[in-house]
Amino acid sequence: MRVAIAGAGAVGRSIAGELLENGHEVLLIDKAPTAISVERVPMAEWLLADACEITSLDEAALQRCNVVIAATGDDKVNLVVSLLAKTEYGVPRVVARVNNPKNEWLFNESWGVDVAVSTPRLMSALVEEAVSVGDLVRLMRFSHGDANLVELTLPPESAIAGTQISEVEWPIDTSLVTIIRGTRVLTPTPEETLEPGDELLFVAAQAREEQLEDLLSVRREDAPKG
């Protein structure tokens, strides 16, 4: 797989290193000469150019890329790179870094973004995930289909604890993708029984999140009175 990364700072170089270790081709693009540190990621291709300019992206042969990652520290740049990659070069998968959470609403398919990654949101979500039981935690947003990756740790008082997956009436536009039980990662099967303490990961439409949380969390009649 060929991947172009706009932004050769610490984030871009780190992503490049991981992808190269997994056997992918990587091109790093940055307009700042000081960012071109070939010795730090020697197996990558490097291009000194402005990723917001068509001529630069032509030189990068973006049409040959399977994925483009907009990883600069400037949200405006990341949006422009995403839009050009999708509309001008038809890149199948565009991933964009969100630096300011206030701008997250812009990072959607209208700007060519398939997946938006907000580091502040992800870090806060991981904190919530570590301490929350019975509360739905949004881990990542997928632009296409207005879907999110969400997590909930099943509380002992949940109405569906001890129930087989096939017996649960799940909301539409939701999919249980994995169960984390202790140190095990389980693929959901119809016969699998949901247990208290299970970490459940779903891909769910945003409009269904409240309904999903109501289904999974503490039953209303069992909830403590305020």
Entry keywords:
potassium transport; disordered C terminus; 226 residues; transport; K_uptake_TrkA; RCK_C; Trk system potassium uptake protein TrkA
Give the secondary structure arrangement, pairings included.
Layout: E1 2-6, H1 10-21, E2 25-30, E3 45-48, H2 54-59, E4 67-70, H3 75-87, E5 93-98, E6 115-118, H4 119-131, E7 137-142, E8 147-153, E9 174-181, E10 184-186, E11 199-205, H5 209-216
Distance between the termini: 54 Å
Helix content: 10-25%
Structural class: alpha/beta
Number of helices: 5
What low-confidence regions span 5 or more consecutive residues with pLDDT below 50? 125-131, 220-226
Cα gyration radius (Å): 21 Å
Helix-strand topology string:
EHEEHEHEEHEEEEEH
How many β strands by DSSP? 11
Q: State which percent range the strand residues make up.
A: 25-35%
Average pLDDT score: 86
Biggest sheet: strand arrangement: 3-2-1-4-5-6-7-8-11-9-10
The largest β sheet comes out as: 11 strands, mixed
Shape, principal axes of CA atoms: elongated
